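SAMPLE LOG
Freezer: B-3
Tube label: C17
Construct: single chain, 124 aa
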Amino acid sequence: VILNEVWRQVQEGVLDVTDVDKVMSEGLGPRYAFLGALETAHLNAEGMENYCERYAPTIYSVSESMGPIPRMEGATLQEVHRQLCERIPLEKLQERRQWRDACLTKLASLKKEVEAMPKTGLKK
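STRUCTURE (predicted):
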């Protein structure tokens, strides 16, 4: 679902590939490394009911405006591929994968540290 929507954003010229990746990695993405989508929403308001009172109509309205599932092919595929290759050339994929894996290893280590911390606010 996420890939479909970010594809649509690029296809419609709303965002480019760099913007999509920035929104995901610097927006809610860091929270999702430690919390799920529903707990994030629960914490972003005075509970989930309050979150839905505040944001559900807008979320619903935006969701209604989304078109059909985009096909990942054709001109949009070529443009997404071009933009990605500008940032990460094909011959650098293995190097980038190693960087990604090192980051994930560090994140896993950090998550272990966080898991050892007191679970403030959680029901026992």
